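FAQ
Q: What does a multi-component entry look like?
A: The components come first, one per line:
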Amino acid sequence: MERYYQPEIECASREQIRTWQDERLVRQVRHVWEHMPYYRKKMEAAGLTPNDIKGADDLYKLPFLSKADLREAYPYGLLAKPLKDCVRIQSTSGTTGKRVVAFYTQHDIDLWEDCCARAIMAAGGTDEDVCQVSYGYGLFTGGPGLNGGSHKVGCLTIPTSSGNTERQIMFIRDLQATILCCTPSYAAYLGETMKEMGLTPDQIPLKAGIFGAEAWSEEMRQDIQNTLGIKAYDIYGLTELSGPGVSFECSAQSGMHINEDHFIAEIIDPDTGEVLPEGSQGELVFTSITKEAFPLLRYRTRDICTLTREPCPCGRTHVKMVKPKGRTDDMLIIRGVNVFPSQIETVLLNHGYPANYQIVVDRVKSTDTLDVQVEMTPEMFTDNLGEVSRRQAELVDGLRSMLGLAAKVTLVAPKSIVRSEGKAVRVIDRRKL
Amino acid sequence: MSLKQISVFLENKPGTLHAMTTALAQNGVDMRALSLAETKDFGIVRLIVDNVYAATTVLKDAGFIHSLTPVLGVMIPDEPGGLNQVLQVLDGAAVNVEYMYAFLGGADADHAYMIFRVQDGEKAAAALTAHGIRLVDQDEVAGL
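Then the predicted structure of the entire assembly, as tokens:
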């Protein structure tokens, strides 16, 4: 049976959602115009006033915000409420220099936690569940967001935060945790550790996992589901917009419902900025229509994905985004070919290797080299050198057909690739570009 | 009648073989035979030891990927044509030898031992025994 935290919103008619979006966008643009001089200047430069935005159809007129704006406006330039009305900040490290600092009023926190509560109930959570939150608590949004959502659902919440794998497993077993929230790479690591301890899936009390904050493949989902004996759900979000819960998966496990009563999603051509028709692949852009303190309009996420409004068997009416292939930030350009780490992960798992891998990119004599380092496992090892080499060669072939370029595969010792308790470090780029 | 060979995965870089022998030495595992096959970036060490259980436990605890493979330990007269005779029997029985290596030390000065990894161990063992060639078992190896 499908469960909803706010059924009247999550299953509202498309007309109703559209009406909310129209009204809230108009109000938000006025709020931003009056309280965020940084964006007002952008609107003025584009020859716009709030009167030009009469509804969601006019959204395309508004200027974009990007990571570069966040850096330029750091720390208070995108704040639209007096500091005395704000109760929290969260922060994320940018890949290039300055951190992103986002501000929240109590109202903003409430709405964010509602979004996380929707995600937990969509994963089957109720007030009878024990929800272990193994995302980092602190500046990172993962821990605080899911913690708040878990409280709203009424789960018994175990705030383990990240790290100390032994203690994580102790709580899962001793307190019979039924829902696990963490990054997919940490879920895989917990699964690997429990398997080594000799625990079979039926001895692990977990039934569902809510995993996000990094791109992961469908194959990795299957792997985690099998090892932990759970259903694994994806959750998506950005600190810039609130945190996890901007969108989340339902029982259909085929894309994440965007909370359209709070965010308007668009897909644009990343080169021209033009809005693309529904179903096209492009860069995901979000407009926050309910946030007070840090209301970003047309924020470019750099995530490449597609949107679909096809009816979902779960009954939710909000638009779904397919699992992003990765951020444009994560995308590597190797010998002119676009490569996402998630593509490499897919090939590894399809060939029976674990998702413990690292990608080393270098430039030798002005040619890019791609070295995929993957850990040897007992399952993949035999005494026969020819057989091990043959499997290695198959992997090279698999990578070539997936990526369209030649990669080297290096088999490394088990546990030699550092395990992450938060976001996994997959790529080491040694090129001096 | 076969021996248990321990095959260990090692990265082909300085210190990995030493790390493995250190773990075995510290736990008093005595090696009877060893061979190493390598590629540019990894290698497989094949070991015959006195105590298989102790060795595999040590390797597992030290984080080495390993597997057990049945191999034949063959006693060969230490004289011209000794190995040739063994291979002739295997050839006659149409048994393919995947790899083979020599054994250190023996019970007497007249014989050498060699380890054979073949595709059909039972067939090979039967053929060798039928031709009066002696195979050694795990207990015998432990006692050497």
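Q: Is there any commentary attached?
A: Sometimes. For this entry: The longest strand of chain A covers residues 367-375.
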